[in-house]
Design goal:
With about 290 residues, the chain is mainly alpha-helical. The protein has 2 domains: about 200 residues, Rhomboid-like (Rhomboid-like fold, Up-down Bundle); about 70 residues, no CATH class. Helix content is about 65%, strand content about 0%. The protein has 11 helices and 2 strands. A two-stranded antiparallel sheet has the order 1-2. A hairpin with a 6-residue loop joins strand 1 and strand 2. The relative contact order is 0.10. The N terminus and C terminus are likely disordered.
Length: about 290
């Protein structure tokens, strides 16, 4: 993950592969929801929010798909426009840094992390939060991307459009997080809004956790390393077991000159005959080493 500064450019970022797919998926779900609302009224939109939005009381009862589906629903045109704009502006750079697979892992890690944070806070009922209030939107994942950009490209300059004012990314992200904290505290009597701001901060928190603790090559690399470690442990156990069987065999055949350490190392690997000290009888020769 490269860290450093970059010069301000007035050109638009590219539509990278993962960002493009996320933009299309979010746009398609938004249009489908709007069409269902046109033909079936507000009841259809409410049904979608209950079944595919994030409702903490339902998630703990087994509706775990909501941990991911809520991030593709949005409450209005401005909501999805701002989220998708930030996804494009900041996500494209991060995907270029990390690659397609790692970027998607990070995005959904932040989305699920924001959902888990929202669920945890909702059951405490602090700041007026309620486990029955549905949450929708990709803002949690977006705030994870913003935090990552602010850390990895801290000295990059961002223009606060439409004002011709440049600010370093690290200060911009710090300001956004402070604003979210203020809005969350000031909306204590509005459960829906306080829960939404909690999701934003939860996404930023899990973005930081990823950068701090997750292996730089992502979950796939960590899982493969673990799998190879288990496989190697199994093979070491097999070698030691074979060595013990060989030792029993030699003793049964009255090989009083047998010494285990002459044939096997501490890991159960068979030693190279040219390097071990085996007492040979007269006329014996050292056999060739075959690996």
């Amino acid at each position: 993950m490269p860290r450093g500064s970059s010069t301000m450019s007035m050109s638009f970022p590219p539509f990278t592969r993962a960002v493009k797919q996320l933009l299309i998926a979010n746009g398609a779900v938004f249009l489908l929801t709007a069409l269902l609302g046109v033909f079936n009224g507000a009841g259809a939109e409410r049904w979608i929010q209950i079944h595919f939005g994030l409702v903490p009381a339902l998630v703990v009862r087994g509706w775990i798909w909501q941990l991911g589906t809520y991030a593709f629903l949005h409450a209005g045109l401005l909501h999805i426009l701002f989220n998708m704009l930030w996804l494009w502006m900041f996500g494209a750079q991060l995907e270029q840094d990390w690659g397609y697979s790692l970027f998607l892992q990070f995005y959904f890690f932040c989305a699920v992390g924001a959902a888990l944070t929202t669920i945890a806070v909702s059951f405490t009922r602090i700041l007026g939060a309620s486990p029955m209030v549905p949450t929708v939107g990709a803002s949690g994942a977006i705030f994870g991307l913003l935090l990552a950009f602010g850390i990895l490209h801290a000295n990059s300059e961002i223009m606060l459009f439409p004002l011709p004012f440049l600010i370093k990314a690290k200060y911009f992200i710090m300001g956004l997080i402070l604003i979210q904290v203020y809005l969350m505290l000031s909306s204590a009597h509005q459960p829906g809004e306080s829960v939404a701001y909690t999701a934003h901060l939860g996404g930023a928190l899990f973005g930081y956790i990823w950068l701090k603790f997750i292996p730089r090559r992502g979950f796939g690399y960590a899982a493969s390393e673990r799998a190879f470690g288990l496989r190697n442990s199994y093979y070491r156990w097999k070698r030691k077991r074979a060595a013990r069987k060989f030792e029993v065999y030699m003793r049964k055949h009255d090989r009083s000159d047998y010494r285990h350490d002459d044939y096997f190392d501490e890991h159960g690997n068979f030693r190279d005959p040219s390097t071990r000290d085996v007492r040979k009888k007269n006329g014996d020769s050292t056999p060739p080493w075959v690996n």
